[in-house]
Amino acid sequence: MGNGSSMLTQYDIEGVQEHCSNTFSQQEIVSLYQRFCQLDRSGGGFISADEFMNVPEFAMNPLSQVVKQLLEPLFVPRLLRMLDGLNFKEFVLFLSAFSSRASLQLKVEFIFKVYDSDGNHKVSFNDVLDILRDLTGQFIAEHQRERVLTKVLEEAGYRKDSVLVPADFMKILGSSVLKMEVEVPVD
Amino acid sequence: MNKLNTSSSELDLDRPNIEDYLPSGSIQEPHGELRLRDLLDISPTLTEAAGAIVDDSFTRCFKSNPPEPWNWNIYLFPLWCLGVVVRYMILFPLRVMVLTLGWIVFLSCYFPVHFLLTGQEKLRKRLERGLVELICSFFVASWTGVVKYHGPRPSMRPKQVFVANHTSMIDFIVLEQMTAFAVIMQKHPGWVGLLQSTILESLGCIWFNRSEAKDREIVARKLREHVHGADNNPLLIFPEGTCVNNHYTVMFKKGAFELGCTVCPIAVKYNKIFVDAFWNSRKQSFTTHLLQLMTSWAVVCDVWYLEPQNLKPGETAIEFAERVRDIISVRAGLKKVPWDGYLKYSRPSPKHREQKQQSFAESVLRRLEEK
């Protein structure tokens, strides 16, 4: 798949399908490629964070905002960090967690990755607090957020200084149905 | 073009609730005591984000039809080649000649009329209107335009404004050949801008500049003055504010609907079999767009003049705008989307995100109280 080529060969499609562990059908991959080309306005073969933000429905999402950490004057993008500069294979891999064929484990692992902002496979109290802040904004006071989080953590048998690993997430989230599916329009 | 800034909050006060249109059925109201699981489970928000990445109604509005090649086999290919030869070698030069002839006739009549008849305003205006209608007819002929007008041609009365859906700048030409409207347009650079400053100015056209913030008030005042003026040409407004691909309509700006006069809707629908008349201003200049039209077979469209509407008692300007958008969309077979066309040039305001944050925050706090 060269940069800027607008035709996928059967070989390309199979490569992508393998990369995402067959979570998408070949038709869905073709549709996703059309969508990828539509989003990649500059035609560079990858989508920048800016190009994702051109979709108003996405830009309105609380997790897609660029958040300034309270303590560090750094911009810590959430979903945008995971999305910036993806080529098509990686784009499909990202979306594979949302396929109807994706296993529960795949979905839970994806959620873990969103929380794990520094990529060290550990989710700390502050990581969870960061996401909670994105989702609630100014509508809950910071100390109240910490209080709520501490309380539910302790009720679940963890401590404030506990560190969560994927297995913990699986235990917490895997017990009931996780509705995380997106339909790829196939014409 | 790439300067993206969040739209100012004052522009958002005139929007009906986008939430009413978006598919947010995935977020049901959870109940029961708050648990760790509820805070960790961000799947609804993630699903919304992924849904927007995979498909969104805003991008769909500005998608041009990709040309479908039908020349894929042994007998269709020579036919297509013949078609190309006819279009580029025969039709195109003929059309260029027609258009040039039209311009010669127009300019040689317009300047004398404009400068010599300065004393007789009424006669001059009437002649200028006729001449503009003439040059527009020449333009339409240069694309072999087949325009079917439906509905009673509205009488020229004061205190009325015309609104239409917008697909390309040629909408203006198609409508102008029947009636010399004064239109409100974005000021363009190049030869279009030159035409705007000279000929269109004399029709009473009004210019705006999207990128200037204070511009709105100035334009609103000019609109009001024009509509209430006695001898001005009827005003045509494209309330979408931007070109849309003729399958959808974006939200109408309320400016045209709070002038205190009757609104006459006009619906324009192009037949895509002949050519895609959508002017994708991001992809091509107006000149390229015109050339593309002049090398196609024909531009076929329908224009419907619809029943004039007035503000109903108790109706706000936004509701009035939405009602008229509904009338136009139904007539032209277009789907409505809840987006502001200006989102092409700016990001949505934080207000929408804040609404989501607020509802989640309230749900968390409420469940905290439940035992």
TrEMBL record, chain A:
Residues 27-62, 103-138 form the EF-hand domain. The keyword Phosphoprotein does not apply. Keywords: Calcium. The keyword Aminoacyl-tRNA synthetase does not apply. It comes from the Eukaryota. One of its GO terms (molecular function) is calcium ion binding. Gene3D superfamilies: EF-hand. This is EF-hand domain-containing protein. The lineage of its organism: Eukaryota, Viridiplantae, Streptophyta, Embryophyta, Tracheophyta.
UniProtKB/TrEMBL annotation, chain B:
The keyword Transmembrane helix applies. Residues 346-371 are annotated as: Disordered. Keywords: Acyltransferase, Lipid biosynthesis, Lipid metabolism, Membrane, Phospholipid biosynthesis, Phospholipid metabolism, Transferase, Transmembrane, Transmembrane helix. GO terms for cellular component: endoplasmic reticulum; membrane. The chain crosses the membrane at residues 72-90, 96-118, 130-151. It is found in: Membrane. The keyword Transmembrane applies. Residues 160-271 form the Phospholipid/glycerol acyltransferase domain. One of its GO terms (biological process) is phospholipid biosynthetic process. Its main location: membrane. GO terms for molecular function: glycerol-3-phosphate O-acyltransferase activity. It holds the Pfam family Acyltransferase. Pathway: Lipid metabolism. It comes from the Eukaryota. Belongs to the 1-acyl-sn-glycerol-3-phosphate acyltransferase family. PANTHER family: GLYCEROL-3-PHOSPHATE ACYLTRANSFERASE 4, ISOFORM D-RELATED, PHOSPHOLIPID ACYLTRANSFERASE. This is Phospholipid/glycerol acyltransferase domain-containing protein. It comes from Salvia splendens (Scarlet sage). The lineage of its organism: Eukaryota, Viridiplantae, Streptophyta, Embryophyta, Tracheophyta.
